[in-house]
Amino acid sequence: MVASPGTAVAADPLPSWRPGAVKQALLSFLAAVTCEGSETVVPEAERVAVFDNDGTLWPEQPLPFQAAFAFAELERAVQRQPALAEDPMVQAALAGDIGALLSGDQFEGLLRVIAVSHAGMSTEAFSAAVEAWLSAARHPHFDRPYEALTYAPMQELLQLLRVHRFRCFIVSGGGADFMRVWVERVYGIPPERVVGSTGRTHFELRDEGGPVLIKSLETLFVNDGAAKPAGIHQFIGRRPLMAFGNSDGDLAMLQYTTINNPRPSFGLLLHHTDAEREYAYDAETRSTGRLVEALRQAPDRGWHVVDMQRDWVRVFTNG
Amino acid sequence: MVASPGTAVAADPLPSWRPGAVKQALLSFLAAVTCEGSETVVPEAERVAVFDNDGTLWPEQPLPFQAAFAFAELERAVQRQPALAEDPMVQAALAGDIGALLSGDQFEGLLRVIAVSHAGMSTEAFSAAVEAWLSAARHPHFDRPYEALTYAPMQELLQLLRVHRFRCFIVSGGGADFMRVWVERVYGIPPERVVGSTGRTHFELRDEGGPVLIKSLETLFVNDGAAKPAGIHQFIGRRPLMAFGNSDGDLAMLQYTTINNPRPSFGLLLHHTDAEREYAYDAETRSTGRLVEALRQAPDRGWHVVDMQRDWVRVFTNG
């Protein structure tokens, strides 16, 4: 509908996207898979789109938002239990040195730090801690609440996909419990469409307070890299038509979505090229979001690459 | 709307349910949580209902359908590899002795049997095996294809809940991959609303054939008993308003749904009382579906109990 010639096109559904190859490809693909009676139309039941979150729907620099939350919680914990600060990984976290945290064998140091803020409490207590942090914290670079920092062009895309009867899922390495507290509010994506990293929870029926689920890091599922297709299979149970990412952690998800898919498919990478309005990074990031191999494969795979500086009119809702 | 007095009520939305306390409670609850402007109305986003599957939406006697599939696959495997039959657990399975399979420590025997049919192949090969079995197999007692054996009263209930803007999820101890092959077809429930037992899958990008996911039984999550609330949290991320089950394996799910829920809530147990039209069992079942403790707690918890012989006009679509 959107792209069909001869139709009086109403308002531009993607006003934050500059005219160009990527915008045209998006609109053409949506027209092709939703045009009833066409050879390329895909039944609504199969219209599934998957989005990475950190660096794809919201920023991931200078630290992923969840790391900022974890470090803030860690500071509060160290005030209560000063002995915690003897752990070198806790020191690295308090210094915001995510490179040190990511360097360890099996991420043991990172897991120790995450355990302080993400395990041993009920799911309700954890949600309350995230809400409390959200209500007070501000992003160190943009000096705005984190909820104000979703990418406006991606919000428009989510909305356009919903209009075209797509079901949009987040497929992120971030913790599902962390994201679910607020992604319905900021993206309109309900909790059951958030696929993230998860640890087992344990059910207890308490005399006072009734049923609770206690968070743990047991059988941790880290939904990143080659695990993303497994997470998609486990939680969604269907191959997506469209996949959106921004790092090598999304490579397998894009491959799974687009290679030998019997349906039309679409892969897209955001390239962070805008040091002025957001950040510019790929191979050399000091945080997460390394992008090398996926970018290298993009031309052969037919994946679209967004140059955020060139392709986006604006990055955030207010600029 | 449905139950409001003074309104001309159109057709009965639950014709397979006999008039009585349970039917009245269902209709009253739905009216209460969906009547706009009332004090009890619940926003659509929170209208989540969870259904056990085996014994709640379809039968589980004389064997759960998935066990029948696994045993049929095992027979085919033994024909190819006769040495398999030396395992006493394989012998028990071939004799249909699910009691022996369930008796072992940590279900090791059961897992060995399940591994033959449920691990080591791609997810696509597994789906094809389930489809092949479905197209030929007939239930040993009813002598009908398995797809014809869903409970008609529960199908009506699923439909009524959808009309009232509920999102209905299956929360079953059965394997998610097994159910997803056909539950969209038979219940209209899409794969992402099927919460079941899952093992890890491993992503491979093959030179020929492209991306595949290989099934394994690693980090097996058995979505039964106290794990059901954890499964609900992990996959749905929201406490349900309504829970439907038929065994002690559903006890924790009903507790999680109904105890201290700040929203109105509804718990229901099917009691298999109809030896003529289906099966009669509770404490003494030789297969799955033991129902003792949940039934004992039902009066105090306010859970509704369906006497299938008395409360259902018919069990299956054709009788």
Explain this structure to me?
The structure is a homodimer of 319-residue chains. The first copy, chain A, has 319 residues and is α/β, with parallel strands linked by helices. Chain A is built from 13 helices and nine strands. The first copy, chain A, has helices at 21-34, 65-80, 88-94, 98-103, 108-118, 123-136, 152-163, 176-180, 183-187, 227-235, 251-258, 293-301, 308-311; strands at 48-51, 167-175, 194-197, 201-206, 210-215, 242-245, 266-273, 280-281, 304-307. In chain A, strands 1, 2, 3, 6, 7, 8 and 9 form a seven-stranded mixed sheet that branches. Chain A has a two-stranded antiparallel ribbon with strand order 4-5. In chain A, helix 11 (251-258) links the parallel strand 6 (242-245) and strand 7. In chain A, helix 2 (65-80) crosses helix 5 (108-118) and helix 3 (88-94) packs across helix 5. The first copy, chain A, is globular. The model of chain A has no long low-confidence stretch (mean pLDDT 93). At the A-B interface, helix 8, strand 4, strand 5, helix 10 and helix 11 of A face helix 8, strand 4, strand 5, helix 10 and helix 11 of B.
